[in-house]
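Give me structure tokens for this 65-residue protein.
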Amino acid sequence: MTSEIERAADALHHLDAGCARDEWVRAGMAAKSAGLDFDDFHNWSASGGNYAGENECRTVWKSFA
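Here you go.
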């Protein structure tokens, strides 16, 4: 049986990490809300053609309430 975290990670990796910034931020918020951690978000983000680096990912991740 697949856990909710595994389902969330699978869903995230089906999205295009090279999407527009507002979509990328929303995906990150959803990932954090679903219980994923920074490494999940960062690894997914790094697969996008517009990847801006770990510092940008970490800054945005920390901004999610």
